[in-house]
Amino acid sequence: MKIITAKTATEASARAFDIVNELMRRDQLQVMGLATGSTPLDLYKQICESNLDFSRCTSVNLDEYVGLKPTDPQSYHYFMQEHLFNAKPFKESFFPDGTNPDAGEVTRKYDRILAQHPIDLQILGIGRNGHIGFNEPGTLFDSHTHRVALTASTINANARFFENPDEVPRYAYTMGIASIMAAKRIILLAFGDAKAEAIRQTVNGPVTLEVPGSVLQRHPDVTVVLDEAAAGRL
Ligand code: F6R
Predict the structure, then answer these.
(1) Using 50, 70 and 90 to split pLDDT, how confident is the model at 157?
(2) Residue 144 annotated to the active site
(3) Which of 78, 177, 204, 219 has the most CB atoms less than 10 A away?
(4) Would the ipTM clear 0.85, i.e. be above it?
(5) Where do the catalytic residues lie (predicted)?
(6) Residue 49's domain spans which residues?
(7) Which residues line ligand 1 (CB under 6 A)?
(8) Is residue 11 part of a domain?
């Protein structure tokens, strides 16, 4: 794992942007794996303000809530539209279909999409409990797209985006750990001291199902981009 630490989240995001920019320049970014949440927002802002053109690129997102339509402001689809796609349209953008309750159908279809669009660069955030995508502790490393019941810690962490905590969906579809590990390159972003322990365990701890991020130690091309606070326990 390569570790990059910058003073602030904005400076760290600029380092991640440099990697995206360089891959685009070398024409090595046909498929980009994207994350939602607060962590990649600065990177997306820097992409939106750049002159990069994604109109020949495909995006695949890590996850989507079950039960939310793409037009629902809380859906991850809507989030990506707002924070990236309105300014930087991709040729095509894929999400697991949160409106379809048939988990078998959704996950089979998304795995087919991922097989047809191998990811050149996956952007990841990490949960305080070490989750990547919505792969909570205990998720098997050979998992592909699946439906998950979100843990209490993740529901609480996400409640800030909803008016009423009862509205936070209880299930999501997520790419699995094997789906993430299949990406050619990965950038893991983490900012703030709330992430410092998850980063310590991910980077320096044992590779264990209890810390899903730790599996990234086995990937040949991971860059971990941190601000000083998130790097505080390394
Ligand atoms: C989002 C995702 C999650 C987040 C993680 C961190 O698509 O897959 O794993 O990356 O929950 O969330 P933030 O960035 O809001 O701290």
Answers:
(1) confident
(2) no
(3) 177
(4) yes
(5) 63 (proton acceptor), 129 (for ring-opening step), 131 (proton acceptor), 136 (for ring-opening step)
(6) 2-185+209-215
(7) 35-39, 62-63, 125-127, 131-134
(8) yes
